[in-house]
């Protein structure tokens, strides 16, 4: 048994429970697989509260990946392309990943080369803001490309 205000040693279960009751605390088994099992006398509610608090702070410090999508058609004209590119630049500057895709409707799948050219052109023009994580790849009726923001320090 280990804990505060206790002499570390091997005690029987009844004696350990008695010691915990004397101090008004809980007897908690820390490592049951050890021989003999290790127990600790602590305030269990306080321990659980601190553990939840620690987990919450770690979760808040974790980085969240935000993915923004931009959709093009294979016949997207220049003005629409520039408008969407401006949004893509803003997303990358804000630190979000960008998922750009060309959606092929009906028979427009015959223009897949145009879609690929459009995505590669976008990747080339966004080179200073982000780097291509996945080159254009056809998945069903969509040609998808991922761009990750460049690290700014």
Jot down its keywords.
4 helices; Ubiquitin-like (UB roll); alpha/beta; 7 strands; single chain; four-stranded mixed sheet; Translation Initiation Factor IF3; 29% strand; 153 residues
Low-confidence stretches: none
Give the strand line-up of the largest sheet. 4-5-7-6
**Top CATH class of the largest domain:** Alpha Beta
Number of DSSP E strands: 7
- Could you say what the CATH topology of the largest domain is called? Translation Initiation Factor IF3
Shape: rod-shaped
Helix and strand element order: EHEEHEHEHEE
C-alpha end-to-end distance: 50 Å
| Largest sheet features | 4 strands, mixed
Provide the domain count. Answer: 2
Question: Which percent band covers the strand fraction?
Answer: 25-35%
In percent, how helical is the residue content? 25-40%
Calculate Rg over CA atoms.
29 Å
CATH architecture of the largest domain: 2-Layer Sandwich
| CATH superfamily descriptor of the largest domain | Translation initiation factor 3 (IF-3), C-terminal domain
How many alpha or pi helices? 4
Structural class: alpha/beta
Mean pLDDT: 87
Fold topology:
Elements: E1 2-3, H1 13-23, E2 26-31, E3 38-42, H2 44-61, E4 67-72, H3 78-93, E5 97-103, H4 112-125, E6 130-139, E7 142-149
Parallel strand pairs: 1-3, 4-5
Antiparallel strand pairs: 2-3, 5-7, 6-7
């Amino acid at each position: 048994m280990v804990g505060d205000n206790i002499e570390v040693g091997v005690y029987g279960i009844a004696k350990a429970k008695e010691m915990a009751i004397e101090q008004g605390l809980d007897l908690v088994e820390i490592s049951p697989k050890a021989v003999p099992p290790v127990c600790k006398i602590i305030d269990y509610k306080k321990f659980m509260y601190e553990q939840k608090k620690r987990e919450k702070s770690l979760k808040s410090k974790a980085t969240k990946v935000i993915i923004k999508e931009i959709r093009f058609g294979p016949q997207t004209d220049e003005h629409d392309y520039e408008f969407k590119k401006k949004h893509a630049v803003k997303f990358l500057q804000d630190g979000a990943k960008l998922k750009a895709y060309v959606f092929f409707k009906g028979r427009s799948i015959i223009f897949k080369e145009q879609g690929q050219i459009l995505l590669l052109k976008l990747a080339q023009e966004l080179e200073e803001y982000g780097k291509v994580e996945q080159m254009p790849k056809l998945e069903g009726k969509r040609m998808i490309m991922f761009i990750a923001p460049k690290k700014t320090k």
